[in-house]
């Protein structure tokens, strides 16, 4: 049953009731004209900002809540930026692999060259080429006389790219992983099949974060569903670089997302830049004069991390890009 839409005054009153320090109707109405109720108020129902009765804690005023909303937008922008850079790496390696499968789409999307896993992915790619909503594939056809594989890879979604990887035959997947981790020897202790599966899951992890960041999810209440198996990191001596649950599983935490980002790049500068930007973002929102900190929260408490977690990521970068005998 669809709930009836509340009248503006009723919605304002409902929002005011969520705060222990009652704001004026005028101030609340102004906020709700700029930010949807479901995202700004209801979106924090299961967060540490509210008590058991789902009422905001006393120190959370509408102004403080807006600062936290602003904090989350900044976090989304960073996560999206890092994900897009990793996406470039994922696509570049796939382009190199499938470039040997033929020049035109009928050749490099030929089902006989691939496994039978996830067969629907090629249908969606062909549909994207046929619909050509932005005219990008028509441009390639006119310029090159065909649509090269590298061009198609660059103009499909990350989900379709990961699906394409999943359809590669074992030999091609093995070559993909070898190229993907070309400047390091990490993950060499794993069984070959585990190595292929780990990379696929890590790519899905990046995809999940990318999609949630792009769609404006409230990250303080968002759980990362993709499961990175702790045994993969244990097998490679990397488990101490991850934040774990009480049961020893890899936690659903953004620090672990940064660890995955670092592990999936062969570029030291990308890893260093990503960590530096994330550190600066955390520090700014943890300063005493920051409105969020004045309320009793700060970036560390909001993300459930410790200052040492950032130091551990720095050690991961050092370990990853130090030659190992």
Describe it.
This protein has 17 helices and no strands. Helix 13 packs parallel to helix 17. The protein is globular, with a radius of gyration of 23 Å. It starts with 7 loop residues before the first helix and ends in a 5-residue tail after the last helix. InterPro entries: Abi_system_AbiD/AbiF-like (IPR011664).
List the helices and strands and how they pair.
Blueprint: H1 8-16, H2 25-34, H3 37-40, H4 62-98, H5 105-108, H6 120-131, H7 136-144, H8 149-154, H9 158-167, H10 170-180, H11 192-214, H12 230-235, H13 254-263, H14 268-284, H15 291-294, H16 299-303, H17 307-320
Helix pairs in contact: 1-2, 4-9, 4-10, 4-11, 4-14, 9-11, 13-17, 14-17
The arrangement of helices and strands along the chain is HHHHHHHHHHHHHHHHH
Q: How many E strands? A: 0
State the oligomer. Answer: single chain
Span of the ends, CA to CA: 64 Å
The number of domains: 1
Strand content: under 5%
Low-confidence stretches: none
* Biggest sheet record: none
**What Rg, in angstroms, do the CA atoms define?**
23 Å
What class, by secondary structure content? mainly alpha
**Kindly state the mean pLDDT as a whole number?**
91
InterPro entries: Abi_system_AbiD/AbiF-like
Protein name: Abortive infection bacteriophage resistance protein
Pfam families: Abi_2
Give the tags.
325 residues; 59% helix; Abortive infection bacteriophage resistance protein
Summarize the structure.
By secondary structure, the protein is an all-alpha fold. The protein has one domain (71-321).
